Amino acid sequence: MKIIILGAGQVGGTLAENLVGEKNEITVIDSDPNTLRVLQDRLDLQVVAGVGSHPDVLKKAGAEDADMLIAVTNSDESNMLACQVAYSLFKTPTKIARVRSEQYIIYQEQLYKQQNIPVDHIIAPEQLVTKAIKRLIDYPGALQVVEFAEGKASLVAVKAYYGGLLVGHALSALKEHMPNVETRVAAIYRRGRPIRPLGTTVIEADDEVFFIAATKHIRAVMSELQKLESSYKRIMIAGGGLIGAGLAKRLEHNHNVKLIEYSAERAQYLSAHLDKTIVFCGDASDPELLNEESIDRVDAFIAVTNDDEANIMSAMLAKRMGAQKAMVLIQRSAYVDLVQGGEIDIAFSPQQATISALLTHIRRGDIVNVYSLRRGAAEAIEAIAHGDENTSKVVGREIGDIKLPPGTTIGAVVRDEQVIIAHRDTVIEANDHVILFLVDKKYINDVEKLFQPSAFFFG
């Protein structure tokens, strides 16, 4: 595919890196020539310096025959205008814009149409991150929770702890422990390296285990790998920006929520617009304030300001003062590995959430969900099987007979309302939603080809 990326910041750069390795022709536009030079030194791509919404700049970037424009600058207006210009002048088939302002998102149904603002897909990072954090609150103890097939199935990452029922046992023991619950371990990471899960694989303490199950069985499976944590009731949020406010709104009716915001004006606004959340104006890294608000009784402290260092410091302080769990938002992806797993339990990156959403729209074949995992090294995808035995490489075949790329496993198949955990003899039918885990995302092209039916394929 010929793809133009507008914006060479964290998201644009990471996306370019993801796509260059997949044999795509990438051109990146940015107004800063130095940023572009650094990117070009590192990756095999074209760069154009200039204002991305200007017709001459888009033309120079190859908009006349581009398959897709992805606008991810820091300006919502620039992103939307670039999509408008690409559609009006160059008839670019697919246009994706990152949009942050709540005002533009509220009215997206009316705004983003070809006759109004021709954006095919909008990506709202703050909404994506808020949703991801909410899932972690719903499943205490999980490191990551991603949903497939409209929430019917989930892939969950957990850390196996000493005392977990399965630790020290082979994976085959899962069935004996839970005869009524079907689950599949899709991947195990031990000391940061992937291990292919077999029935004979013994789970060790500190293993990071990714498993797939029907969403209703998630807590039961988690209880096999670690002592099940009780539900979070008391939540403290540091930062009242779009993410902090959105999270408080989602949690306040079922949890006891306190929010700390540094700006007096913003704190006043939030106090008026949130129903049950108690809003404080102050510094989240002030020990006196944390002490006064009984930080030692807080189940989860969630730092989501725009400042990575402030998030890390306030979360570490909250944890030391007795908060049960500390979660932080990290803008710089490189920091995520450094901070997660020590005093900070979970670090999440808005970039990874944004990249996952973008990849969903970029993948070929009928791929309806993509989640970037393990800081972009691995991927979980949901693909719909089309065709029949003559035109498809997967329909009508047992999973054991499908030639999957190295390190790729099929974890589950969702058929109508039914979640079928994958076994060697499971037969894939037309219109099944197939959930796959790729330990190495460089094989994504091979997976895409598997799910593209062909008139010339006869088995």
From TrEMBL:
Pfam families: TrkA_C, TrkA_N. The keyword Lipid metabolism does not apply. Gene3D superfamilies: NAD(P)-binding Rossmann-like Domain, Regulator of K+ conductance, C-terminal domain. Residues 1-123, 232-348 form the RCK N-terminal domain. InterPro entries: K_uptake_TrkA, NAD(P)-bd_dom_sf, RCK_C, RCK_C_sf, RCK_N, Trk_Ktr_HKT_K-transport. It is found in: Cell inner membrane. Its main location: membrane. This is Trk system potassium uptake protein TrkA. The lineage of its organism: Bacteria, Pseudomonadati, Pseudomonadota, Gammaproteobacteria, Alteromonadales.
